[in-house]
Amino acid sequence: AGLGEFRIRDLNDEINKLLREKGHWEYRIKELGGPDYARIGPKMLDHEGKEVPGNRGYKYFGAAKDLPGVRELFEKEPLPPPRKTRAELMKDIDAEYYGYRDEDDGILEPLEQEHEKKVIAEAVEKWKMEREARLARGEEEEEENIYAVNDDESDEEGDKEREGEEGQQKFIAHVPVPTQQEIEEALVRRKKMELLQKYASETLLAQSEEAKTLLGL
């Protein structure tokens, strides 16, 4: 380690060149029918008995493993934390998680009310400024009549229009309104049916219907 970074790198490069040459000879021996030393040969170990670490065929020996930028290559990344199951995630979920208890502390609601008042005041002030600007330009302000009825809203023939005095708003009835005479006739017919059902027997009703049929009523 006391040789210095550059000397250590040069020595490590020289060792790797010799290892490449050794690998070429092993490949040639195999081509000539000899044993495959790359497969059956002993593994390359360091002084601690561990396999020599490397990256893409390049090996690092001795102090070269502690050089800047080399140590990080062989540091094992920490295992990711185990993922929680759905049951574990749902265990801590309650009404507070969904915000149903945000107002229980009595802090949020007053803040919301204060902000609402501020927004309303700003909107009113903006409207006043725009109104004053229009009046300053001489533009006449026409307020929208929210009770106005469009022509498209008038429906079928049975719709009746009621007009008040001159200058008052017109109203449209969208259902047919019966007259007083029609109401009285309907009440009389209803009363007759109630009396017949109360006092007349079934036989009498049948005879009455038969008589009406014969008379053509």
TrEMBL record:
Residue stretches in coiled coil: none
Subcellular location, record wording: Nucleus
Main location per UniProt? Answer: nucleus
Q: Name one Pfam family in it.
A: Isy1
Q: Name one GO biological process term.
A: generation of catalytic spliceosome for second transesterification step
Q: Which UniProt keywords apply?
A: Nucleus
List every stretch annotated Disordered.
133-171
Q: What spans are recorded as compositionally biased (Basic and acidic residues)? A: 159-168
GO CC annotation terms, alphabetical: nucleus
According to the UniProt entry, which residue ranges have a biased composition of type Acidic residues? 139-158
Q: Which domain of life is it from?
A: Eukaryota
Q: Which InterPro entries match?
A: Helix_hairpin_bin_sf, Isy1, Isy1_sf
Return the Gene3D superfamilies for the record: Helix hairpin bin
Q: Which family does it belong to?
A: Belongs to the ISY1 family.
Q: What is this protein called?
A: ISY1 factor
Q: Which organism is it from?
A: Serilophus lunatus (silver-breasted broadbill)
